[in-house]
C-alpha cells in the first residue's frame, strides 16, 4: 500500500520529516485590520494576559487595527465567525486551542462570503495541533514564543489555500443531524474514549492526554468490540472498531505524529485504522510509543494507512463517539468529505518540516 507515493509497509524506521504543505504561498496580504476572537478564560485563563501583553501590542506596533471579540459560551466563536461583518477586514483571527480553531472554522465556512478573508490562529489553549503542524514548534499552547511566532506569521501576511473536512454526524442526543467542519483530525474508537477520560483530568494540563491514553491501554483486555463498516470513496471494509484516525495533518496534539505523510493542501484525508481490536497491552503500548516517537507505527502489520476524498462510517449497536479537532462533538454514523483548498490560512513563507 502506498501513501503519497511512499511505501508504508515493510519499513522499520520512522518516516522522514515533511513540510505541511504541497503548494507554495498563494498570496501575500498587507494586513491592516483584523477581527480577533478569543476566550479570555482559555488556557487556564492565560489567554487574556497573552492578548494584553503580547498579541495586541505586537499587532498595534505593526500599525494593524484590531477589533476584539471575546467569547462567553460554547460555540460563541462559530457565532462570531458566521455573523461578523468582515467587510474591510483583512483577517479573522482566533486565539485559543484546537477547539477554538475548529469552532471558528465551522462558523466561517458557513458564510457565503468566506473566500474574501484569510484566517489566522494564535495558540493559547492547553493543546494546539496548529502550533506543531504549521509553525513547526513543539511548545504547548500559551507558550510565549509560540504566540509571538503566530503573530509574526499574521503580520507577514503570507497565505495558502488549505483543505478542510465537512462532517455529517449525529448530535449530542444521538439522533439529531449535525454538520461541523474540521481542520486537523477526526477520530473514532480508542482516541475519543481516552479523550473523554482526559477531560475529567483537566487539572493535569496537557499531560492529561498521555496519562489517559496509558490508563485506557491498561483496560484493553476488557474492552468490548463494536462492529462497523467504513467506506473509502465508496469501497467498503467491515471491521471491529478499535481506532480510526482521519487526518488532515500529521499530528494529534503536539506529541503524536499519527499520519506522517499527511499534507494540509493535497485534497485528501489520511486514514489510519486497525482492522482488528488490539487486546494486548504490550502491543498497544508499543504502538503508542511509535506514534509518539515519530510515526514508525505505519510499518506495523496491524495498522492500515490509506487516503481518500470521502469517508463514511456506520457502527452497529450504540452510536459511537466522534472526536473532532480535540473535542467530542457528535456520534456515528459519520460522513466526512474533503473540501479541497477551502479557505486561506496565514502560514510561514517557508514552513519547517514536522
Automatic annotation (TrEMBL):
Domain of life: Eukaryota
Pfam family, any one: DAGK_cat
DAGKc domain location: 29-171
Alphabetized InterPro entries for the sequence: ATP-NAD_kinase_N (IPR017438), Diacylglycerol/lipid_kinase (IPR005218), Diacylglycerol_kinase_cat_dom (IPR001206), Lipid_Phosphate_FormReg (IPR050187), NAD/diacylglycerol_kinase_sf (IPR016064), YegS/DAGK_C (IPR045540)
Keywords: ATP-binding, Kinase, Nucleotide-binding, Transferase
Originating organism: Prymnesium parvum (Toxic golden alga)
GO biological process: phospholipid biosynthetic process
Keyword Kinase carried by entry: yes
Matches recorded under PROSITE patterns: DAGK
GO MF entry, a single one: ATP binding
Protein name (record): DAGKc domain-containing protein
Gene3D superfamilies: 2.60.200.40, Probable inorganic polyphosphate/atp-NAD kinase, domain 1
